[in-house]
Amino acid sequence: MSRQNQSDQTATAPITLEEEKIDLSDQRWDDALVLIIFWVLAFIVFLQFFTRYILNDSIAWTEEIARFLLIGVTFIGSVMATRKQSHIAVEFIYRWIPRTGRRIAQTVIDLLTTGFFIMLGVFSAQIAGRTGQMMVSLDIPKSTVYWIVAAAFFCMALCSGWNMWRHLRSGTSKLIDPELHADQIRAID
């Protein structure tokens, strides 16, 4: 069969799409909080676009609120990522060191990460305590945003500490024994 005939047959072949089941088993209430804030942010950005470019008269508070909601989505979403252990990590080194070294490295990383989140939570709380300004367009203290960031860092520290406890108790993690956790790691097709 010539190449032209093969390409004609493949071009007319029906495409079959298989639906993958969506697994929402690892979703919790705090994940819903991120989703709600995200959609409120999306609505406010659309409202800002509509009033500015369609009505030629923008609503003053939309830009400021959108910025602070984006900060909220970022840090509250980071709590979710910490809980799910889905923050980025350099996994290359883990493949070349023995299992004992991987366990030690995982413990050190867990300790450093938890300490880092606690430190950033303390710093954010200090900044929130020192901030006395009000938002420009709304009568809300700017410190509210910093308190949310501080709370998110402390929640990340709790999740990170819990993950560390689970790693120490079970003796394994996605980085220590990737073959045991292969079903939790999504394949890249």
What does this structure look like?
α2 packs antiparallel against α3, α3 packs parallel to α5 and α4 packs antiparallel against α5. The model has no long low-confidence stretch (mean pLDDT 86). The radius of gyration is 23 Å and the shape is flat. The chain is built from five helices and no strands. The protein has one domain. The protein has 189 residues and is an all-alpha fold. The two termini are 30 Å apart. The longest helix is centred in the middle third of the chain and has 32 residues.
Helices, strands, pairings?
Layout (H helix, E strand, L loop, with lengths): L2 H10 L16 H26 L6 H24 L14 H32 L12 H28 L19
Family: Belongs to the TRAP transporter small permease family.
Organism: Roseobacter ponti
Main location: membrane
What would the keywords be for this entry?
single chain; 189 residues; mainly alpha; 5 helices; 63% helix; transport
Number of beta strands: 0
Shape by Cα distribution: flat
Q: Which segments are poorly predicted (pLDDT under 50) over 5 or more consecutive residues?
A: none
N-to-C SSE string, H for helix and E for strand: HHHHH
Which class best fits the helix and strand makeup? mainly alpha
Mean pLDDT: 86
Instruction: Give the amount of beta strand, in percent.
Output: under 5%
Whole-number tally of structural domains: 1
Biggest sheet overview: none
> Which value, in Å, is the CA radius of gyration?
23 Å
Distance between the termini: 30 Å
DSSP helix fraction: 55-70%
Tally of contiguous helical segments:
5
